[in-house]
């Protein structure tokens, strides 16, 4: 995907850091409510019979660190740093790929939320030149509602581009990820499990590799934005969109892309424990939204600084986009 052209379709003004810090939906738009109130909840699926290769790492139990005492977005509930006791578990070393998801669909006939609803959200910079006009999300106009976009056709049915089988599957919702987990014999991680795994044994650091900040010129430890968001992505790290699920250096537990590349869904509902009116206002209307972690290829320090372990995001359970994926955890014996 490194050679996909950067499109500029809607004339929207570049975003500003202060806007992102005030408006918490800047990183990931949400459907907010199903486009069809009668849309059925995806049906449960049975454990899979097909043999699908998976690579896991065993993560030791103990006192997991969650959050930070140096929050960048306090309204998101990034702080304070706290400890939570967890049991040992196994986790996918990389996000679930399109190939794994395809095997799931082939065996079960599962239909994703994006396929049911007829559209999904695509970042404008990933759309091929000459793409037909599309509707923008008002608060974040770089996100486009693309009819027919889904995990099979990530840029719409008229695009010649097809998903890379070794990249994280995208255009899947929390509902879809939960159904896949039932089939694969795993589950989505809790926030504590995800952060514990992401830290790779290093302890209280903002990134899986430590404290060194990525930049736009020479240090590219993960797949994030380089340049001016949302206008220009120089792709100095090699990718305009997603990178292969097993790319860049793994962390101390052997896990790839725990930050950057795609947001990763968790099992938890997004909640912020606070009595402050500003917190309630920032997250009004998010009842039932799900928590995701890790940031994506669209993150940049100047705008959406969420490629940090403590960063948090929320979307409705039926939302699908071109930068949300997931990985699973299992009982520690599944190694």
Automatic annotation (TrEMBL):
InterPro entries referenced in this protein's UniProt entry, alphabetically: CTDL_fold (IPR016187), Sulfatase_Mod_Factor_Kinase (IPR051043), SUMF_dom (IPR005532), SUMF_sf (IPR042095)
Residue ranges of the region described as Disordered: 1-47
- Biased composition, Basic and acidic residues: where in the chain? 1-21
Q: Which domain of life is it from?
A: Bacteria
Question: Per UniProt, what is one GO molecular function of this protein?
Answer: formylglycine-generating oxidase activity
Q: What is this protein called?
A: Formylglycine-generating enzyme family protein
Give all residue intervals belonging to the Sulfatase-modifying factor enzyme-like domain: 56-329
Supply the source organism's classification: Bacteria, Pseudomonadati, Pseudomonadota, Alphaproteobacteria, Rhodobacterales
Extract the Pfam families matched here. Answer: FGE-sulfatase (PF03781)
